[in-house]
Amino acid sequence: MRIGELAEATGTSARALRHYEQAGLISSERALNGYRVYDEPAVVRVRNIRYLLAAGLTLDDVRVFLPCLDGDVAAAQPSEKGLRVALERLAVLDERIAAQTRARDRLEAALREKTGDRIRPAA
After folding, report:
1. How wide is the angle at C-alpha 39 spanned by C-alphas 38 and 42, nearest 5°?
2. Torsion angle of alpha carbons 90, 94, 99, 104, nearest 10°?
3. Taking the model in full, what pTM does it have?
């Protein structure tokens, strides 16, 4: 199947597919006309990549899961390495959330100070 067909089948863009290919997560052959051609298992692989990215992992993190991207990643028992990567990503996300919360709290305090406590917290 061509890149547009794979994009449609997986709900992603051709640009994202080229990015996944450049990152070494998927591969294609070139037709005589130069178009990328993907095999049917690429659909499962791309859906798994998107699942892992949606869970908060990065493309670099997803590389750890290369051996199992052609199966049912969501139902599979995670490997120790996979768990370690996921836990490390979770720690990074927790720190980012904490940093953003601190920045928000500082901004709110400054606004309260400047407005005489007339601001309302966002819903």
Report:
1. 80
2. 130
3. 0.81
Rounded to 5°, the CA angle 8-10-14 comes to: 60
**How far, CA to CA in Å, does 16 sit from each of 12, 49, 82, 122?**
7, 11, 23, 34
Number of Cβ within 10 Å of residue 13's Cβ equals: 12
Cα dist from 63 to 20, 38, 51, 108, whole Å? 10, 19, 13, 40
> DSSP secondary structure string, 49-71?
HHHHHHTT--HHHHGGGGGGTTS
pLDDT tens digits, one per residue of 37-88: 999 999 999 999 999 999 999 999 999 999 899 999 988 888 899 999 999 9
Token pair belonging to 26: 């998927």
8 Å CB contact between 16 and 10: no
The tokens for 118 are 């007339």
**Beta strand extents in 33-99 (DSSP E only):** 36-37
